[in-house]
Amino acid sequence: MIAELGHFALMLALGLALIQATMPIVGTRSDDPTLISVAAPAALAQFVFVALAFAALAICYVTSDFSVLNVYDNSNSAMPLLYRLTSVWGNHEGSMMLWVFILVLFGALVAGFGGNLPAKLKANALAVQAWIAAAFELFILTTSNPFLRIVDAPLEGRDLNPILQDTGLAFHPPLLYLGYVGFSIAFSFAIAALLEGRIDAAWARWVRPWVLVAWMCLTLGIAGGSYWAYYELGWGGYWFWDPVENASLMPWLAGTALLHSAVVMEKRGALKVWTILLAILAFSLSLIGTFLVRSGVLTSVHAFATDPRRGIFILAILVAFIGGALVLYAWRAPLLKQGGLFAPISREGALVLNNLFLTCACATVFVGTLYPLALEALTEEKISVGPPFFNATFGPLFVPLLVIMPFGPLLGWKRGDLLGAAQRLLAAAFIAAVVVAATFALQHGGPILAPFGVGLALFVMAGAVIDLAERTMILRIPIGSALRRAVGLPRSAWGTAVAHFGIGVTLLGIVVVTAWGAERIAALRPGETVDIAHYRLTFDGMFNRTGPNYRELVAHFTVRRTNGDLLGSMEPSRRTFPARSMATTEAALMRRGMSQIYLSLGDPSGDGAVPVRLYFKPLVLLIWIGAVIMFIGGGLSLSDRRLRVGAPRPRAAKTQAPALQAAE
Amino acid sequence: MSPRIPRKLLCAVFVLLVLGGSPLRAVEPNEMLSDPALEARARNLSKELRCMVCQNQSIDDSEAPLAHDLRVLVRERLQAGDNDHQVLNFLVARYGEFVLLRPQFAWHTAALWGLPPAALLAGIVAIVLVLRRRRAASSEADNLSAAEEARLTELLRDN
Q: What is the complex's ipTM, to 2 decimals?
């Protein structure tokens, strides 16, 4: 009954979406306020019905209703509650439900909190949002219905894919989708602006918070996925340039570019046409990512061709929305007025370079991911595009971006003083140079480029600190007034510096773990030891353990420093899941500062020796901590008063304004 | 989910693998060559080669039996005196271009390799052109026509 209710609610949501998609457009064309005012309530109602459908599916999972095919295929009554809940989106149908749920959630938020938006812009944007929702609701109902029943209900379900039974993965898809789908707001506003043929700096002010939220969630989602791959897949890598990862990286790169160009548009009224294009591209790449992951085209072009219904449907959605948006753009963008002029050396100029490198990096990932598919479809020739290609092409585009990054915030709007900025960055360059020299002196025959990588990371971090120091004038005026300046500094300035610092932290982690990570592979018998870095691990023996829906073979290791101090124990294991007769490797991790000892088990052989892979991963945690810092930076920027549309400006801010302007 | 490691390999005696300067590997102790220079070349080549039965893993990362066979094959070719290029060519002749993770530069991959530099170049050219055009447009806007000039001087004289 509950499944049928969910199914019905989804159909009603589709009906509401169609109303929301058409009435407001007609209303804005014919200047009919009644039709325009349909948009917001329709968006809220559509959200309620999709939420009902989603809740119905979740209830089926939580209560283990195996008469529902989707639940039978992906759940098991022995799984802990958390995994029964997260398996809702651990499969194709459920994840599309989550996608639509988040899409209409954003629509409802715009409807509910967009009270100060111009009525026509809001109505048009909500209508565009409803086109997307209607397309995906139709997709679910016709090709990926999660509410289908089985006539003879089985007693037990087939379990969730064991590698997905993980706390980290419980939150990864929702975060990722919040990011993907969050860009739909920018897309809808861009299309709405094109439909109206009018755009101004205020547009950027309305759209930027949504882009920022999406970007924050995507950053955290990508980092979460990377950490999950690191500890769950058992071979300790954190980024594989896998098409699925690339699918999430492309919207991130475009979204990061959008975030920066929207700043120029908001502050200086320039780059309008380009910002609109980026808004379209960021969401288009999200759609392409969804297509890549959901259509099965990645596993093989031929697998896609044998069961093409879903793939063709998503492809049609892609072509309609991306193609339609680009045609509309080509037609209407020339009508938009160009804004503010600026000299090449200026904050705007730096942000244009940022956009240049980010979009080129994005294009590189795009072509590298899709080229093999296109080539095979067109010529039947099979080639592989793997990490060596991406490292060779992506790196050279990203390094200059990181080099210019600290300059950006130090340059003035309109016309900047490059020499002045360089002088202020002298301290950062000095720190970087010292670190490069010291690393060279300390390392014994490591990679030549690694010290420069560390230097660049330090330069980026120091640059962010200098940016804040300059704005607060901390070294030039008494500490009390500097602190007052720090408090009065716009939160978005803090956000910029913090997020840029986070990039440096991530880079430092990547460089150090790539250059100085250590690895041991050994076959051990109980009592034997293995050394890595400054640590000695003793293999004590194996034992069996039973989990809720798995059995595991656990190896116990005692970890000591090489000088004998006891540090603790590590218990890597191999789990067998009877429901799917699959095995997973559960690596054991021991944190040492920001570094980790990583231990994973191979398949034990008959003679009692257990193969182990042991890694020392220096500063590896910085990779993800950097992403969390970027997230915090985004949050600071989001809390900036000036970004909250219509927030009343406090009196005090008026009197402080001149001082703040000088600081910027 | 990872394919099983062949038993016989695991009977290998306790060997330590010392690899300063590279992250994790699926290379197994008994596959390694005694000549460190040759082994280093084998490792570098392994990172360029795809395990064709896996999804997007190099033979250096993969535990699949095929990856093992390829790793052994690479080392055999190296011991036979092949240079890196010859080893790659040998594998391409045997398994097709699909085995290379870094596609060869040829006509059918020209668009792939050409796009990143072309995009950067096109972007730079576009930015320069737009800046020039807009500067020209703005200086034109700053220049007053003769009639406007006359009107301006008139206005200024009046004050």
A: 0.83
